[in-house]
Amino acid sequence: MTPSDRALPLQHFASDNYAGMCPNAARWFMEAQTSGHEPAYGEDRWTQQVSEGLRELFQTDCDVYFVFNGTAANSLALASLCQSYHSVICSPVAHIETDECGGPEFFSNGSKLLVGESESASARLGKLTPDAVESLVTKRHDIHYPKPKVVSLTQATELGTVYSVEEVRAIAAIAKRRHLKVHMDGARFANAVATLGCHPSDITWRAGVDVLCFGGTKNGLPVGEAVVFFDRALSEDFAWRVKQAGQLASKMRFISAPWLGLLENDTWLANARHANAMAARLHAALRDVPGVELLHAPQANAVFARLPQPAVNALHAKGWRFYQFIAGGGCRFMCSWDTRPESVDAFAADIRQACGA
Amino acid sequence: MTPSDRALPLQHFASDNYAGMCPNAARWFMEAQTSGHEPAYGEDRWTQQVSEGLRELFQTDCDVYFVFNGTAANSLALASLCQSYHSVICSPVAHIETDECGGPEFFSNGSKLLVGESESASARLGKLTPDAVESLVTKRHDIHYPKPKVVSLTQATELGTVYSVEEVRAIAAIAKRRHLKVHMDGARFANAVATLGCHPSDITWRAGVDVLCFGGTKNGLPVGEAVVFFDRALSEDFAWRVKQAGQLASKMRFISAPWLGLLENDTWLANARHANAMAARLHAALRDVPGVELLHAPQANAVFARLPQPAVNALHAKGWRFYQFIAGGGCRFMCSWDTRPESVDAFAADIRQACGA
Amino acid sequence: MTPSDRALPLQHFASDNYAGMCPNAARWFMEAQTSGHEPAYGEDRWTQQVSEGLRELFQTDCDVYFVFNGTAANSLALASLCQSYHSVICSPVAHIETDECGGPEFFSNGSKLLVGESESASARLGKLTPDAVESLVTKRHDIHYPKPKVVSLTQATELGTVYSVEEVRAIAAIAKRRHLKVHMDGARFANAVATLGCHPSDITWRAGVDVLCFGGTKNGLPVGEAVVFFDRALSEDFAWRVKQAGQLASKMRFISAPWLGLLENDTWLANARHANAMAARLHAALRDVPGVELLHAPQANAVFARLPQPAVNALHAKGWRFYQFIAGGGCRFMCSWDTRPESVDAFAADIRQACGA
Amino acid sequence: MTPSDRALPLQHFASDNYAGMCPNAARWFMEAQTSGHEPAYGEDRWTQQVSEGLRELFQTDCDVYFVFNGTAANSLALASLCQSYHSVICSPVAHIETDECGGPEFFSNGSKLLVGESESASARLGKLTPDAVESLVTKRHDIHYPKPKVVSLTQATELGTVYSVEEVRAIAAIAKRRHLKVHMDGARFANAVATLGCHPSDITWRAGVDVLCFGGTKNGLPVGEAVVFFDRALSEDFAWRVKQAGQLASKMRFISAPWLGLLENDTWLANARHANAMAARLHAALRDVPGVELLHAPQANAVFARLPQPAVNALHAKGWRFYQFIAGGGCRFMCSWDTRPESVDAFAADIRQACGA
């Protein structure tokens, strides 16, 4: 195989990490190449520039670090907030609990994740509640159980829902009262901001969040996430932690420069808005399809629905990729910054046809 | 700042990770973009293709994993070879000992590094010897000291020298006899192969190496290293280890595809040969400069020399970047795949002038 | 306060670790003193003798190690069976999950505990079932979730019940088929053997158990547990692990010699039988007390019952100590090797009175 | 074998942990038995009493924890002072470096030990110097090397010497200036105090020590060490750390009560003085033995000497146990709280005879 042009390729709804990088990110990636030699390990001009850009974006003098992926971002952030004998409160569907292969436990050398209840209306939407946090933090006080030290929110959640500003504030208030730090897994932070229409600071430090893992990959980068410490006291020696953990890029510019493409003209927000709109379009297209049971309404870039298994099989046979992980035919359809309306429409049509069959 | 063309920029001799990516790597990076959507986590076509390519390169059915950087590659490879109460034998100047911020100890949960003696002729060239290994492995047998389990060689070494095929074989023979596994830190593996003119298999599995960390970044990639297990029994469940350790790229294609650029037409070897040649050119140019004390002859892409401190200062003042880390004015001048002869000549001229001043 | 004789002191039902050491253990503890100087770290005569004694007890050539407490025994045993990216299947009430402060996660550097379902009849008795194991081990196969590697059974369970020989065998059979190792937390192993009336080998290696943590403390020792590897391949370098983990006693004889007291004349079994009998006596005495809801029948040395909260308060006010940890007034009454029938009767009488009030 | 009286048994000079427990410790161990039932995990009366006793001994409101052995005491104390990417400065002969099988690295999840120079007069006496600390702490400031965070002193040292009050103060002063915490490995703390004739506070908190691991085992306990935090801010949540690390005794009274025996009538000091006196006696007896090269004068309870290898062999053949670990016949003869003058004299006579042969 050699490089060549190709026709518009098929798109999938499996994950927003199936998409490539957005044009702006690609342009700045190549731009980082132009200087030839550049100091390594973040001493380059782009890294400094993006860090400054993120401080401006959040309107505060936060500490910014770039790491390679979300597991590392979350795990290192959590490890900086707790010791091995502490615990982290999260929802039962939290990515840190279900899809990071014990990364948080590994990087913290053993911190336990305590999952909130799973039966309430909020839990069914993938959210923690103040009550769930309060319940977990007050359940045990003895030294035979890890002491809660952090509450972790995923924003947007793994179920494609979004915490309102008030919801974040309410949880953070409990956290402060109980001496917990607040971590936000923002793998799809941009999608949440796009939905809420708020300022990025409103659901982070102004609401009580101490550390944000700001997802770049799913927003259009080739590789990389930012760890943003709003409470700078918590990032003491974090640079050493990143280095030791194998997360310090030597040619850092190729990790950081593409962020300039996201920040330029609020591309990050445009990318997220587009992905959210595509999810809404898909949701609308499926609303009246017999056999499709839409679960909750999408608030970010994912649609959750139950389909008859034969329909699932038929769609897979046609080449569509998507995940099933909810019992009884529940499927996740994920849209990304590059999902084309035509892809949505074609997929919806095939679903309709498959369910009719 | 916006993307734009620039004149030929200044080059440095600080590190081969100051260089950008080589054209072939860049081309394949962009090529990985063309398909639009692609399965994540290594299920894409490029990752499969590169893995196959590396198996062909090494002429054996090895297990290949891609991680983000050298600290991670070395640390995860070592962690797969030893438990926390084991130890790793290496040279006193080994990168794993001196420049990874305790990464190997962290990922292995405490394995100790045992450094060989530092006074012999070999040690002054940055090399371990069979005697040094034998001495360390037989020094203690009691349970109050970590049990040696791995010997780690850096090829090319941190001092720009290269182990001959026979030297690797001799150390590996001791290792096998003493039930140690053999790890090779090949951050500059290509430079060693270029120097030796041997087949890559000759200084790896055919010589007794169990695991190679094959450096991509310093060879011309934007980001990424390959961990190559020649003894496949050692890579059991390594995919889980990589995931947990935050080293599994979701958009893996952007990490793996550029390797196709290195493999294409033996670009990896051409890049290394060029860097080595530039070091030889610099060494030759400095041979008769009064005040410059060249240390050992370069065998890879680095020149080591002692300069008068005023000369060092003058060169830094002119904008040249390079590291000093040997007592008494010792400097390291590192060449890379893109170092231009003109840069070498200009640098040598400035050194000559600085030393004359 | 100076040492002196005292009248028969009050006994409690809080835990079997409220009891002191049994006379036989005390006698051998002091006997270990008689030789004056003795080689350290287990090279003494008693340690060798007890190890041999345990091999005889289990009728197999097992590997035996002595550690200080149950958290260490379980955690080190589990760490020897799995890597950080593996997982351990256990019941939701398993001590390793609920009362070791994340010890297993710490010593294994991150292994996750996967708890079985909690709603079945077996689960309400604190037991894992083959189905629960099968369900957890087949739930996920992807690298984003820790790979199951061990199943851990507590025998007797934390709810005072006992797995039958057939139950252990059935779980071990699933484990073997799924390539899981079998760990038995035997903090109250003696109590289980006493109940089943089987040979100790019948519910351990003959039933498929790979490693047993044989509890000494609750059986009458002042301090110490034994880790017994029936599969000796799994104990490779375990002595180094114990040393590194701070679990190697220098004056080992004081840890090991008291075990001779337990082995002598099957004192371990007599101690357990007595404790079990006291629990049965208490259970019988409470059977017809109005207001007391006995939960399941005791199979080992604990009685579980729900009492009205005022009754609980009244008992506490009288100086009785016991734990409440089941919602709705559930209490645990634990008997030990030294619980006197008079104490049981007095406690039962006070419960009757408190419930009548 | 059954318990019985024996004649005065042979004594050894291998280690002070070859000795049993001193009578006062044994008495209180048995006294802890008298109450029958007693709350577990340190809620018992003896643990509270000893903690108070240690606070009185040190004349300050320190935090006291009891753990099982010295590796655990040192490792947990160090882990509470540094993170995985930090480092600990110690002497090249420090027990934490040479004889704890990587325990400090394990419990801290990777902290590196940086050893001071080994050639100076102080180093030959097993001591760190302010210059050595300063040199290590200023050597590197980059994030590629673990950041120094703690200096660890062994008092008395592993070579049987003792830091003067001024020496401790001088090192602590450097430490404070460089933002390092000061840890004291006091496995033989009592022997140092006995030699210096100072108050225990003078070489600990009054001199700038933050945490002391106060050795009980070598001073006459059957098992156990105390971790004493003079800076109470450093012991935050340390109880959880101890529990998770498998160092919390359930029947704590048997670990803590014997300390009452050490504190009673300053038995700890009497024991140490006796051991020191026996070392002095042995040193004096060997002073004029031809063939014996005494190394430095003993300041605590160890004598170091070089003997001809045939003499060493002859002594071993006679049944004497001692360690050789210094090249060229260097031997360590260690005295303990129970070493009899007759044993010293007999050993010295046999050395004289062996060297004469």
What is the gist of this entry?
Four copies of one chain form a homotetramer. The first copy, chain A, is 40% helix and 15% strand.
Helix content, binned percent of chain A? 25-40%
Structurally, how many domains make up the residues of chain A?
Answer: 2
Shape of chain A: globular
Report the order of strands and helices of chain A. Answer: HHEHEHHEHHEHEHEEHHHEEHEEH
- Treating each run of at least 4 consecutive H or I residues as one helix, how many helices of chain A? 14
Question: What is the CATH superfamily of the largest domain in chain A?
Answer: Type I PLP-dependent aspartate aminotransferase-like (Major domain)
Task: Name the beta content range of chain A.
Answer: 15-25%
Number of strands of chain A: 11
CATH architecture of the largest domain in chain A: 3-Layer(aba) Sandwich
| Main sheet overview of chain A | 7 strands, mixed
The pLDDT mean of chain A sits at 95
Q: Which chain pair shows the most residues in contact?
A: A-B, 67 and 68 residues
Q: What is the straight-line distance between the termini of chain A?
A: 38 Å
* CATH fold label of the largest domain in chain A: Aspartate Aminotransferase, domain 2
By secondary-structure content and strand pairing, the structural class of chain A works out as alpha/beta
GO molecular function, one term (chains A, B, C, D): threonine aldolase activity
Protein name (chains A, B, C, D): L-threonine aldolase
Subunit structure (chains A, B, C, D): Homotetramer.
Cofactor (chains A, B, C, D): pyridoxal 5'-phosphate
